[in-house]
Amino acid sequence: MEESFLINGGKILSGKVEVEASKNAYLPILASSILCDKDVTFLNVPNFSDIHSMCEILKRLNVKFEYFGNVLSLDVSNVKNEKITHDLTNKLRASIFLLGAMLGKFRQAIISYPGGCNIGQRPIDIHINAFKSLGVKVIEKHGYIYCNASNMKAGKVVFTSVSVGATESLMMCACLLKGETTLVNVAKEPEIVDLANFLNKMGGKISGAGTDVIKIIGVESLHGGEYKVMPDRIIAGTYLILGAMCGKNLQISGFRKEDNNFLFNIMRESACEIIEKNGNIIVSARGRNKAYRYLETAPFPNFPTDLQPQIMAMQSVASGTCVLKENVFENRFNHVMELVKMNADIFVKDRIAIISGVEKLYGADVFATDLRAGAGLVLAGLVADGYTTVHNVQYIDRGYENLERKLEMLGADIKRIKFE
Ligand code: UD1
């Protein structure tokens, strides 16, 4: 059954919205919990479909689950080394994290290639080459990756390009590896720091997360314990942009401002009003925003690719022209065609989009092609004149919890509709 959002745009949104825990921090942390010997309890698990997909994979490895509201306890004491099949990996790019975690735990793994959002080729060569440089034998055949790490040794891994996932994979695989492993030219995203904090809380010895070089001193074992994952900076960013587009005292709480510094710089140059009060941010639109003249996506601390569609929706109705370059993924402009259906004026050449702001967007039938593109289209629908149907809501559910209900509470006219 297909699900869509039907949005009657043009409402002013106000009230308070709370940001959930980070999907991109939870996914590697959940995978790495198999490295622990005892129960692990997570205190703030969000209801995203990607989290459920990760839990399905962990079930295959004989992890037992107990939920109390959004508190989740994992019994990892009888975890088993099983082949991770295509039906489990095809839903989720982050299934690749199991490879690092299983190599760390069992020194052997067989896993099918990961699926995930269609935003580019998304190869896994950086992960595989890094494992190989520590002595892991890798054979790729018939859609599966066979890894044997019985001769894996701690050492130095120099990444040729920066990858969030590969940095996290290597942290997991080296955590229980005797000796010191150094990772050079790593990603510095806050989710990497959160993974290090989790592993260290369970007894790991990882330093340098958040800088270019991470050091991991292997420990014999990890115990269990409780953990609260960091807030989702992409959801926070989505609401901040929403507030700048159509908010009136829209209060966003439960996130860390420092994770979105780049976005705040953009917002300060637009026309919106941002007030900080008791650790919360209150945003109000002040008429048309000024276009941000030039913006590129790049690894943290630069502007995140995961907010590119949302900022594009904002720039579509700003006054002036914005030049936006997508550096991280080669195919992340699928939402452009959909925004153009809504009257946006956007010209794309290779990785550059030139957005000439228009006075008004008009409602249309549009299709989400991935998670964040879907979020961008919802923002556009909320400011458009008339009705917008955003199809393929299953993508949005991967990383936003009950988005329509949260927006409705802020005064939006939005409904989830189902088609046979
Ligand atoms: C993570 C995030 C994703 C975000 C991305 C960039 C999670 C679960 N997902 O994805 O939401 O958009 O970071 O911030 O945290 N690459 C290769 N070979 C590899 C690995 C990556 O060529 O082996 C390329 C990718 O295709 C991409 C670039 O490197 O062009 C960066 O990807 P990476 O940082 O690895 O992103 P993910 O970890 O997949």
What would your notes on this structure say?
This protein has 420 residues and is an alpha+beta fold. The chain folds into 2 domains: 2-19 and 231-419, UDP-n-acetylglucosamine1-carboxyvinyl-transferase, Chain (Alpha-beta prism), CATH 3.65.10.10; 23-227, Enolpyruvate transferase domain (UDP-n-acetylglucosamine1-carboxyvinyl-transferase, Chain, Alpha-beta prism). Helix content is 31%, strand content 26%. α5 (125-133) packs parallel to α6, α8 (233-246) runs parallel beside α12 and α10 packs parallel to α12 (371-383). The model has no long low-confidence stretch (mean pLDDT 96). It binds uridine-diphosphate-N-acetylglucosamine (UD1). Uridine-diphosphate-N-acetylglucosamine (UD1) binds next to α1, α5 and α6.
The CATH architecture designation of the largest domain is Alpha-beta prism
Q: Pairing-aware structural class of the strands and helices?
A: alpha+beta
Task: Name the overall outline.
Answer: globular
The chain-level mean pLDDT equals 96
CATH topology description of the largest domain: UDP-n-acetylglucosamine1-carboxyvinyl-transferase, Chain
**Name of the top-level CATH class of the largest domain:** Alpha Beta
Looking at CATH, the homologous superfamily of the largest domain is Enolpyruvate transferase domain
Bound molecules: uridine-diphosphate-N-acetylglucosamine
Estimate the strand proportion: 25-35%
Q: What is the percent of helical residues? A: 25-40%
Give the total of beta strands. 23
